[in-house]
Design a protein that fits this description.
globular, 106 residues, 6 strands
Length: 106
Amino acid sequence: MDEDYYFSIDDDTINDKVFVLVIYDISSNKCRNKFAKLLLGYGFRIQKSAFEAVITKSKLMKLQSEIPRYIDEKQDSVRLYTIKGKGNVMTWGTTENYNVEDVIII
């Protein structure tokens, strides 16, 4: 199934939103659960260790500053991708449809 609705973000200076994909591998269950709760404040889970969000650039900077507090840099890994412009996501298997407008940031 092709999905391209997430990437309908213009690359102009008027639009302050970016699409982000965060994937992680955190060894501690406690830290992993806290990190997942943090990410739920920005977007939604698409897989066990992957979150997507459409957020403002200022929220992105806030998220980037918060990430180091949740990980052990010697054994954990977090990757944050920012994607702008038109793109396409291909998915296989079970997926949930999320409306970006339904995400509530606490």
